[in-house]
Amino acid sequence: MSSDKHISIIINPYSGSGFSKRKYALLKRKLDEWKLNSKLHFIRKSNSPYEFIESELKTGSKLFVVIGGDGTVNSVAKSLLGKEAVLAIIPNGSGNGLARHLHISRNFSRSVSIIRSCKIAAIDYGVVNDHPFFCTSGVGFDAHVSHIFSKKRKRGFLTYLKVILAEFPGYKKEKYQISFEDKQFTVRAFLITMANASQFGNNAFISPAAKIDDGFLDLCIIRPFPVYYAPILGLEVLTKRITSSKLYNSARVTEVTIQRNGPGWAHIDGDPVFLPSKIKYKIVAKGLKVLVPEAK
Fold first, then answer.
1. What is the CA radius of gyration of the chain?
2. Distance of alpha carbon 110 from alpha carbon 30, whole angstroms
3. What is the pLDDT of residue 168?
4. Quick one: pLDDT at residue 48?
5. Are 218 and 194 in contact (CB under 8 A)?
6. What is the dihedral of CA 239, 245, 187, 71, to 10 degrees?
7. DSSP-based three-state secondary structure for 60
8. What's the pLDDT band for 296 if we cut at 50, 70, 90?
């Protein structure tokens, strides 16, 4: 980005392992080195980024840099929809699914360089009951885990893994009615994920072939399985072989309705949200502009 451009930077110091003084010093040093006119905003528990974003848009800011995880990316990106603004992601969360899909480095020093990228890509986003999402959304076990994880004081992958291991043995699978196009069926599922990007984060691939600009969501279903099969399923997810699992089904859709027995938890880009029994998903094609790394 040229030096006369004003950029707005939103930082979530609670994401992942936090935002250290070292990272702050490195960011400031790079901004000074590049002679960029920037304004920083730190998200606090009682301080959302929405007013800051609206104020910056009114001043003419065209580039919004978000430093945090997928939930933080969601909170900023949804405020930019329909605006003449571009999003840049510096991953600093627990999973960083969208950044990983876009091949943005998780090394903080290298990822900061995305600010200077001139390569802009238009990506799709999904909508679930009027809530936008950019990576994944779903119901079932991953939604249950996101709800429990959100209550933990300590963040990061290890905490997330501990929650998975603690909650898995007693988790009760639900029955869902799924409708799309001219198809309708009922399935008992361990989880149902709508994937815009290929993974949850941490290289856990729920839909390895998903494309973020193809105008489709990938409906991914994992059926219930015995406890002893969990390590095998985990390996399949981590090695992009989940699509060959006997427990897995998927379909490419533009709209889908999921009906369950009652209201409950879902997740939107990893953050929990309580939704009614009827959940509607749809895709919006190429509705968000993002900075992506220059091809090497």
1. 19
2. 11
3. 93
4. 76
5. yes
6. 0
7. coil
8. low
Share of the chain above pLDDT 70, in %: 97
As a whole number, mean pLDDT of residues 104-108 equals 94
Tokens of 271: 């953050």
pLDDT-derived band of residue 3, with 50, 70 and 90 as boundaries? Answer: very low
pLDDT at 153 over 60: yes
The beta strand positions in the chain, using DSSP E, are 6-11, 37-42, 63-68, 86-91, 120-128, 131-133, 136-140, 174-180, 183-189, 191-195, 199-201, 204-205, 217-222, 248-253, 255-259, 264-268, 271-275, 278-291
- For residues 143 and 267, the answer to whether their CB atoms sit within 8 Å is yes
Mapped onto helix, strand or coil, the DSSP state of residue 255 is strand
What is the pTM (predicted TM-score) of this model? 0.91
Q: Is the dihedral of CA 127, 133, 137, 143 positive or negative?
A: negative
13-31: b (≥16 Cβ within 10 Å) or e? bbbbeebeeebeeebeeeb
Query: And the tokens for 207?
Result: 């839909």
78 within 8 A of 282, measured Cβ to Cβ: no
Q: What is the dihedral of CA 131, 137, 138, 142, to 10 degrees?
A: -130
Cα-based distances in Å from 8 to 12, 121, 228:
13, 19, 48
**Rounded to an integer, what distance in angstroms lies between the CA atom of residue 282 and that of residue 216?**
9
Q: Which residues of 209-219 are buried (b: 16+ CB within 10 A; e: fewer)?
A: ebbbeeebbbb
Give me the pLDDT at residue 16, please: 81
3-state secondary structure of 119: coil
Count, in order, helices (H) and strands (E) of the chain.
8, 18
| Beta-carbon contacts of residue 244 (< 8 Å; ≥ 6 apart) | 236
Instruction: With residue 231 as reference, give the H or E element that holds it.
Output: helix 230-238
- How do residues 190-234 score in pLDDT, each as one tens digit? 999 999 999 999 899 999 999 999 999 999 999 999 999 999 999
